[in-house]
Design goal:
Layout lengths: L19 H6 L16 H10 L7 H16 L4 E4 L2 E4 L15 H15 L1 H6 L8 H8 L4 H7 L1
Helix pairs in contact: 2-3, 3-4
Amino acid sequence: MRKPQNSKTADSSTNTDPLSSQRSLSSHDEWPEPPSEKAYYGLAGEIAHAIEPHTEADKAAILIQFLVAFGNVVARHAYYQVEAVQHHTNLFAVLVGDSSKARKGTSWGHVERIFGELDSVWKNDRLTTGLSSGEGLIWAVRDEDEEDEKDEG
């Protein structure tokens, strides 16, 4: 990570602005360096490079979205064996950026279109949007039972 240009510390006893620590998080001087070109290896990298000139989305976000979607589509059916351990393709990622400005959804839109054309069941039955709370996430990933069906009807 690059060293911040601002040499002030986040000591609350000397800082009178309660929002200064939040503002410093949004400073581009504190963001990590983008991935090297080595990260854009293989098909995922080729797709990220192909989409990049046609979007405002970050190339790294496209790569991450692609890798996570691939792992989700493949599920736990494929793996790479290293000694006694199976390494599956499932990945978990969080993209962080300013709301309505960071183009997180834009990067997802390109990847969703690609995988949705390859697997319509995945697109129609396995994607959930609009989560707004922890409770919403829990409800989306719960094991459905008869009580859930009664609540819906």
